[in-house]
Amino acid sequence: MNHTAFLIALQTATQQLRATAQAEFEPLDLALLNHQPAPGSWSILECLEHLNRYSRYYNPQLSKALTQASSIADQPVGYSWLGRKSVNMMRPDNRKKHTTLKHMNPSGSRLGREVLNEFLAHQTALLDLLARAHAADLNRKAVPVEFFRLLKLRLGEALEFVVVHQQRHLQQALRVKAGLQVSLAC
Which Pfam families does the entry mention (predicted)? Predict the structure, then answer.
């Protein structure tokens, strides 16, 4: 996919993530947002807090990479083996469960509405980063992987990883909400 189409697709997905979170989760009361569907399962706010923890790392890394990135003409976005594997592993349609790193796991937390507000703010920041990325070389290895910083993703891979990871966990949060509606109906 070429540079421009790639970024437009990520911007559209990010706008949809933000709109979905606002529409689906803002109306819920705090008890429902913190409800865990089963022991060890994440609540809606735990799903969002997990994403916030990743955004706290990746958004500054992406901003730094964009500041240092050279300009490039519209060209196809390329993938390294690590980048392709990372993105495919996080795609929402990949139903395989993955173990979350301890420091990224919010399990058992009692969280407030500030988690949702922070998530929405991170989406706004990501949209700004995606707008800046239109003038950057997306094929430059520039973003250290959170769990092993010696490895680097290309800028385009990192942007896509962040978006698909958010889509994956927002779908998880929506499944938690759907379960709430079923249990409330009974």
Answer: DinB_2 (PF12867)
Instruction: Provide CATH code, domain 3-185.
Output: 1.20.120.450
- Domain chopping of the chain, boundaries: 3-185
d(CA 13, CA 10): 5
pLDDT in tens, 51-73: 999 999 999 999 999 988 777 76
* CA neighbor of 77 nearest in space, from 155, 139, 164: 139
Per-residue pLDDT averaged across 78-90, rounded? 82
The Cβ of residue 29 has, within 10 Å, a number of other Cβ atoms equal to: 9
- In degrees and rounded to multiples of 5, residue 148 shows phi and psi of -150, 90
